[in-house]
Specification:
Blueprint: E1 30-31, E2 37-38, E3 41-45, H1 49-60, E4 64-69, H2 77-80, E5 84-85, H3 98-107, E6 113-115, H4 120-132, H5 136-150, H6 153-161, E7 170-171, E8 175-179, H7 189-198, E9 203-206, H8 207-213, E10 223-227, E11 231-233, H9 236-249, E12 253-256, E13 259-265, E14 268-274, E15 277-280, E16 284-286, H10 292-298, E17 306-315, E18 326-328, E19 333-338, E20 341-350, H11 360-372, E21 381-390, E22 397-400, E23 407-411, H12 417-432
Parallel strand pairs: 3-4, 3-16, 4-12, 6-20, 8-18, 16-23
Antiparallel strand pairs: 1-2, 5-11, 7-11, 8-10, 9-10, 13-14, 14-15, 17-20, 17-21, 18-19, 19-20, 22-23
Helix pairs in contact: 1-9, 1-12, 6-12
Length: about 450
C-alpha cells in the first residue's frame, strides 16, 4: 500500500541521446526548378494540445509549420480541463449498463449529464449512435483503441519536453478514483477485465487505505482505486503555451485568425481562408476541437461531432489540497491539484456550441468541493466553461482525409485530450512524412460512421 505519492515523472527516453524538440534530424528538402532547397510545409488549424503537439512532431520530421487559431494558443478546451494524463485510460465511458443510469442523471438538476430541452432533438441522433457504441463488443473495440492511443502518452510528452520549461509541468503522480459505495470505485467486472488485458496496474483500496493515502478527503468514501502509473499536468494552459513557445523558437509561425474555408485543386487542398483571406498551403491538419466538424464538412467529409460542454471551478488558496488527482466516480467529476489552486472539473452538457453558459453547473461543483474536502475555503473561485469535441463512440478522428491526400484530421478526444494529444501529433507527423504510423489508425477513421 503506497504511503506517499509516486516519484516525480521521468522517462527512460530522456537519456536516449535523441535530438531535442523541433529537431530536423529526419528533415527532407525539396529542390525547386531554380535549384534552391525548400522545406516542405504544413499548416495546422487549432492551437490546443493536439495542434501544438502536432506542430512539434511535424518540425521534428522536417516540416516548416504554420499554426492558426482564432482564440490564441491553448484558449479552448485545453485551457480548462483537469489535466489528467492517463496511460491507463482504457475503459470507455460508454459501456454496457451506462444508459440505465442516464435517466437519473438527466432528471437530477445536479447530475453529471444534462441536455437542454431546446437542443434535445438536435442531439438525439448523436445520443442514439452513442447507445449503439455501449454494447460489449463495441466497448472492447474502443478499449483497445484507447490503449493504443493513450499507453505511450508519458513517453511522448517526455520526448517533446525534456530539457525545456515544459518538462516540470508534467508529473507521474498516480490518480485516485473514489466512491461512497462499497466495491464501486473499480467499476464493473468488464472495466476490470479491460484494465487487466491492457496491463494497467490498479490497486483497490478500502476506507482506511483511502484515508491514509489522501487525508484531505472527507471520511465518506468506502472504496477506492489507485492507478499509480497515471500522471497529471500541473497547469494545462501553461503547458500548451510552453509547447507552442518551443515550436515558435524552432521556427513555427503562429497566426491568430479564424479559418473560414479552404480552396482545393483536384484532390488536394491548395489554400486556407483565414478571416476571408487566402493563404496557400502544401498540406493542412485539422485539429480545431469542437469546430473541426465544420471544417471537415467543407473538405467533403461529415463527422457526427458534438460540442460536449464542460465546466470547472478553480479554488485559489483552498486551504486543503489532495496529493494527486481524485475522481469522484459517483458524481462523475475530477479534482485536480494545480499550481494555481484546486480545480474541480466535469459535467457533460449538450446545448450547442454557441449556447450561453449555465453557471448553475459550477455552483454544483462548489457544493461538491465542500462535501469532498472538509475545511476548503471558497473565498476566491474562478469559473470556466468550454466545449469538448466528442464523437458517439468516444474515440477521436485521426488520419488522412478520405477526400484530399494532403489534409489530415486530428480531433474529437472528448475527455482525453491531454492523454491523447502527444501521440496523435506523432501519428500525424508520421503519416505526413510518408512513414507507417506507430499505431493502427483504422479505429479512428473519419468514415467509420458511414459518412
Amino acid at each position: 500500500m503506497p504511503r506517499s505519492p509516486p516519484p516525480r515523472w521521468r522517462s527512460s527516453s530522456a537519456a536516449s541521446g535523441r535530438s531535442g524538440p523541433g529537431s530536423s534530424r529526419n528533415a527532407t528538402s525539396r529542390r525547386s526548378d531554380l535549384g534552391v532547397s525548400t522545406t516542405p510545409s504544413v499548416t495546422v488549424v487549432g492551437a490546443g494540445i493536439v495542434g501544438v503537439c502536432s506542430t512539434l512532431w511535424l518540425q521534428r520530421a522536417g516540416f516548416a509549420v504554420t499554426l492558426i487559431d482564432s482564440g490564441g494558443v491553448g484558449e479552448g478546451a485545453s485551457f480548462g480541463n483537469a489535466g489528467n494524463i492517463s496511460p491507463g485510460a482504457v475503459v470507455p465511458y460508454l459501456i454496457p449498463g451506462i444508459w440505465r443510469e442516464a435517466p437519473g442523471w438527466l432528471l437530477n438538476p445536479e447530475g453529471p449529464l444534462a441536455v437542454r430541452p431546446g437542443y434535445f432533438l438536435k442531439a438525439l441522433p448523436w445520443l442514439m449512435s452513442a447507445v449503439k457504441s455501449a454494447g460489449e463488443e463495441a466497448a472492447w473495440r474502443t478499449s483497445r483503441a484507447m490503449h493504443a492511443l493513450h499507453g505511450g502518452t508519458l513517453d511522448a510528452y517526455a520526448e517533446l519536453t525534456r530539457g525545456t520549461e515544459a518538462e516540470n509541468l508534467i508529473e507521474l503522480s498516480g490518480q485516485l478514483y473514489v466512491s461512497e459505495k462499497p466495491d464501486a470505485a473499480q467499476g464493473s467486472a468488464l472495466s476490470q477485465r479491460m484494465r487487466a488485458e491492457a496491463g494497467v496496474k490498479a490497486v483497490t483500496l478500502d476506507f482506511m487505505e483511502i484515508r491514509e493515502l489522501e487525508p484531505a478527503l472527507a471520511p465518506i468514501f468506502k472504496s477506492g482505486l489507485l492507478l499509480p502509473n497515471n500522471g497529471r499536468c500541473k497547469n494545462p494552459h501553461h503547458l500548451v503555451k510552453a509547447l507552442a513557445a518551443i515550436a515558435e523558437r524552432n521556427g513555427a509561425t503562429i497566426v491568430r485568425g479564424k479559418v473560414t474555408g479552404f480552396t482545393t485543386e483536384d484532390a488536394r487542398v491548395s489554400g486556407v481562408l483565414v478571416d476571408g483571406n487566402a493563404r496557400p498551403v502544401q498540406a493542412v491538419v485539422i485539429a480545431a476541437g469542437a469546430a473541426s466538424n465544420t471544417m471537415c464538412e467543407q473538405l467533403g467529409t461529415r463527422v457526427p461531432l458534438e460540442a460536449e460542454r464542460g465546466y470547472h471551478i478553480t479554488i485559489e488558496n483552498p486551504g486543503v489540497m489532495p496529493r494527486m488527482p481524485v475522481t469522484n466516480t459517483d458524481a462523475k467529476f475530477a479534482c485536480a491539484p494545480m499550481n494555481v489552486g484546486l480545480r474541480l472539473a466535469g459535467t457533460a452538457e449538450f446545448a450547442g456550441i454557441d449556447a450561453a453558459p449555465n453557471w448553475a453547473r459550477t455552483e454544483v461543483l462548489k457544493r461538491q468541493a465542500q462535501r469532498m474536502f472538509p475545511g476548503v475555503r471558497l473565498d476566491s473561485v474562478t469559473r470556466w466553461t468550454g466545449n469538448r469535441p466528442s464523437l458517439p463512440d468516444g474515440l477521436p478522428v485521426l488520419g488522412r482525409s478520405p477526400r484530399y491526400g494532403n489534409a489530415y484530421f486530428a480531433f474529437g478526444n472528448s475527455h482525453f485530450g491531454m492523454s491523447a494529444g502527444p501521440v496523435m501529433g506523432k501519428v500525424i507527423a508520421e503519416i505526413a512524412a510518408g512513414r507507417a504510423p506507430s499505431i493502427d489508425v483504422t479505429p479512428f477513421s473519419a468514415t467509420r460512421f458511414g459518412s
